[in-house]
Design a protein that fits this description.
single chain, 525 residues, alpha+beta, six-stranded antiparallel beta sheet, two-stranded antiparallel ribbon, 12 helices, 8 strands, VANGL, membrane, cell membrane
């Protein structure tokens, strides 16, 4: 990126900087990361759990691009101009076209399933009504009169169909949360069962009633009522299979993020591997701290610095080059091993000292800014209603006083890529609107929060791939391991079955707690 910075212009303000430098950094990250992602996609045989193609993400080399970056909000910033250096290869075009084809295929599969379910549901609700109306239309004059009991069955059918309609809407008509790689087995079995059930009823109706033109209209109505009752029982079976079966905890899963080792434990019921992966991802966005690749570059840069300090000299001639270099490298690494832990200790201590120092400055700056807000509010109460300042203007008024301290703290803790100036101003105006304290405002910045706390563009994990040795439609079992991979990291899920617990009862006799206190007659004077 430094080669592209031949034309620079210096100006004040953060918005112009965020519009140009972020694009340049995103181009640099695409050039560095695209070969690695292509190699990884060739070596894995997996299924994709979500279809939309991911946007360019922040790579592990973000800190190197950040070192040459001046992102001071209130100070001089750099605008990068000139011709674009972004290039795309034939392999990139093929990969993009493959992603588009996969997304179109999964969309067609989803809409096809919805269409089949909708047609089958319409057939289910119209069948009982058709059973009752067809005799009235085809051979009305030959039918026996419908008595009071028969007319009461009409009300029963109407209310049962209404209850079935509401229950079907509540159970099946939901906004889909994800695109799963395979069909939901229990739902497919229920659809097949309903189709066979309705088909068998129509077959019996056509043979025994339509062909013979049965005149017993009361019996025909009871036949329709029996169909509705059976459909209600199938709906109850669907509730048991789709909702109740998975509620009882049966397995304990451990989820580990491959890059930094952060882990969580969850309890799951009887689920398939793909549905368990969906539950894990839903909990990941809520429980895991946001993935920050900039925190992982410190150890890599430290190891590279140690290796760069080793110098190997070939004193035996070109014939002993390989063995001489290997022995020299091993000896130098052994000598530096004793001092490396001291360097790590002092680096971490110095980093903690700088974080505490800049955190203290940030807390003081924010408290002073909120104190200024209270003074402004007291002054605004004395003004006319038309001259009062809205929360957005108040946030813009006090933001420059805390911008430098906040920017330095975010850079020290390597969180600056998750917070833009616009998002900070929105959060500040939200705190001012709801009369929140400085601690409530700083809670978002003093420690990294869960992924859902940040904008969707900064999640760094949108498209996931499920890798499993077992079929993704098979149920969870003890010892099953599957991996959820995204562009920059992966989640390793290990499944363990909750052991069978045997409790025994021990009876304690209440009389065993009684005791006798004997006092001596002689006491000291």
């Amino acid at each position: 990126m430094s080669a592209a910075m031949d034309t620079e212009s210096t100006y004040s303000g953060y918005s112009h900087y965020s519009g140009h430098s972020k694009k340049a950094h995103r181009q640099g990250r695409d050039r560095h990361k695209s070969p690695r992602s292509k190699d990884g996609s060739r070596s894995e045989k997996s299924v994709t759990i979500q279809t939309p193609p991911a946007e360019p993400l922040l790579g592990n080399d973000a800190s190197r691009a950040e070192e040459g970056q001046d992102d001071n909000w209130g100070e001089t910033t750099t605008a990068i101009t000139g011709t674009s250096e972004h290039s795309i290869s034939q392999e990139d075009i093929a990969r993009i076209s493959k992603d588009l084809e996969d997304s179109v295929g999964l969309d067609c599969k989803r809409y096809l399933g919805l269409t089949v379910a909708a047609v089958l549901g319409l057939l289910v609700f119209l069948t009982p009504i058709a059973f009752i109306l067809l005799p009235q239309i085809l051979w009305r004059d030959d039918l026996e009169p419908c008595g009071t009991v028969c007319e009461g069955l009409f009300i029963s059918v109407a209310f049962k169909l209404l209850i079935l309609l509401i229950g079907t809407w509540a159970l099946f008509f939901r906004q889909p949360k994800a695109d799963l790689p395979r069909v939901f087995v229990f739902r497919a079995l229920l659809l097949v069962l309903i189709f066979l059930f309705v088909f068998s009823y129509w077959l019996f109706y056509g043979v025994r009633i339509l062909d013979s033109k049965d005149t017993n209209y009361h019996g025909i109505v009871q036949y329709a009522v029996s169909l509705v009752d059976a459909l209600l029982f199938i709906h109850y079976l669907a509730i048991v299979l789709l909702e109740l079966r998975q509620l009882q905890p049966t397995f304990a899963v451990k989820v580990v993020r491959s890059t930094d080792g952060e882990s969580r434990y969850y309890s799951l019921g009887h689920l398939s591997i793909q549905r368990a992966a969906l539950v894990v991802l839903e909990n990941y966005y809520r429980d895991f701290t946001v993935y920050n690749p900039a925190l992982l570059t410190a150890s890599k840069s430290r190891a590279a610095k140690h290796m760069a300090g080793l110098k190997v000299y070939n004193v035996d001639g070109p014939g002993n080059n390989a063995s001489g270099q290997s022995r020299a490298m091993i000896a130098a690494a052994a000598r530096r091993r004793d001092s490396s832990h001291n360097e790590l200790y002092y680096e971490e201590a110095d980093h903690e000292r700088r974080v505490k120092k800049r955190r203290a400055r940030l807390v003081v700056a924010v408290e002073e800014a909120f104190t200024h807000i209270k003074r402004l509010q007291a002054e605004e109460q004395q003004k006319a209603p038309g001259e009062m300042m809205d929360p957005r203007e108040a946030a813009q008024a006090i933001f420059p006083s805390m911008a430098r301290a906040l920017q330095k703290y975010l850079r020290t803790t390597r969180q600056q890529q998750f917070h833009s100036m616009e998002s900070i101003l929105q959060h500040l105006s939200f705190c001012i609107t709801n009369n929140m304290t400085p601690k409530a405002f700083l809670e978002r910045y003093l420690s990294p929060g869960p992924t859902l706390q940040y904008d969707r563009d900064r999640w760094l994990s949108k498209q996931w791939t499920l890798v499993s040795e077992e079929a993704v439609t098979s149920g969870l079992q003890d010892g099953v391991v599957f991996v959820l991979k995204c562009l920059d990291f992966s989640l390793v899920v290990n499944v363990k079955k909750i052991p069978f617990i045997k409790l025994s009862e021990e009876f304690i006799d209440p009389k065993s707690h009684k005791f006798v206190l004997r006092l001596q007659s002689e006491t000291s004077v």
